[in-house]
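REQUEST ID: PR-0412
SUBMITTED BY: lab tech R.K.
PRIORITY: routine
TASK: structure prediction, single protein chain
INPUT:
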Amino acid sequence: MAVSLFAGRASMGYGIERNLMKKTVGSTDKIVRTIIAVVAVVVAGFSSVWGIVLVIVAAIMVVTASSGYCPIYSATGISTAGDDGHRHGANAH
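STATUS: complete
OUTPUT:
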C-alpha cells in the first residue's frame, strides 16, 4: 500500500503537499499568537503544575505563528490569512 501511495504522489507532482500547507494564519493572528506564547511562558514560570502545559501551548503558538499554518484552521476551513497584501488577477500591479 505504501508503494501505491508514493507512486500516486509522484504522479501528482506534489500538489497535495502544497494544498495541505496553505497559509491559514494572517498577520494579526500571528501577533496575537506571539503574545499568547509570551504570556504562557511567563505564567508557566509561576506555576509548576500547569507549567508544562503552558510551555507546550506556547510552543504550538510560536510554530503556527512563524509558519503561517494552523492545522486546526485547515481542518475546519478557517483562514485569517486572506490575501495578506497580495493582489491576484487582472488588476494586480
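NOTES: Residues 40 and 46 are 10 Å apart (CA to CA).
REVIEWED BY: pending
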